[in-house]
Design goal:
Helices cover about 40% and strands about 15% of the residues. The chain is built from nine helices and seven strands, in the order H-E-H-H-H-E-H-E-E-E-E-H-E-H-H-H. Helix 3 (about 40-55) runs antiparallel to helix 4 (about 65-70).
Length: about 200
């Protein structure tokens, strides 16, 4: 909470704070359950519109944090409707802080004034590892809103001098080549041919 208070004090909101695990994002957002910040009525109105289309959002465990404080977690463990609602409010300047996982950096296509990296490590199936240059550039690329901010801010919170040098190395590094994990499956081909004839399917 103190970090968010300092960001607010220095006019560095809205911010996206990247954390290594989903549970970290949820835990951080829960700390704002009793906080109330400006924009509540606008957020309530927009959220009500989303609930009409997606009734499942009516009892979302973080709806109070989002509406009252303008704070929300954003990761693959949440409903798509929830993430869309958060992104829309962030784009409109109504969400103050989003706690997102580093693995979702490429999928979060909404910028903020500030990006915060409390750690330069991420947890995956094999354990904890340093973030890659590509991940670093994807995350920091979210800093600065076109037409709103003259500059975007990136705050790295190093635990040691070693982390500070690693952050500098990431800044100066070229992103690794992005390799697609997409593989064509038989059912995808069949679905395509069910909607188009063979010649059309080749150009879709």
């Amino acid at each position: 909470v103190w970090a968010v208070e300092n960001l607010y004090r220095h006019s560095l909101l809205p911010a996206i704070i990247f954390l290594p695990r989903r549970r970290d994002c949820d835990w951080a957002a829960r700390r704002f359950r009793n906080v109330k910040l400006e924009g509540r009525e606008q957020r309530r109105k927009i959220y009500s519109e989303f609930m009409k289309e997606f009734p499942i959002l009516s009892d979302h465990p973080f709806s109070r944090c989002l509406i009252d404080a303008g704070v929300a977690p954003h990761h693959a463990g949440h409903l798509t409707a929830w993430k869309v609602a958060v992104e829309r409010m962030l784009a409109e300047g109504l969400v103050k802080v989003v706690f997102a996982t580093t693995t979702l950096a490429a999928g979060l296509d909404v910028p903020a004034r500030t990006v915060v990296l409390p750690t330069l490590f991420v947890g995956d199936k094999e354990g904890e590892r340093p973030i890659s240059a590509l991940e670093f550039h994807q995350m920091t690329g979210r800093a600065g809103r076109r037409g709103v901010d003259r500059v975007g801010f990136v705050l790295v919170l190093p635990y040691s001098v070693r982390d500070l040098f690693f952050a500098r190395e990431l800044v100066e590094s070229e992103p690794e080549e992005l390799l697609s994990a997409f593989r064509v499956r038989y059912y995808q081909v069949l679905n395509l041919l069910a909607k188009h004839d063979f010649e059309e399917a080749l150009t879709v």
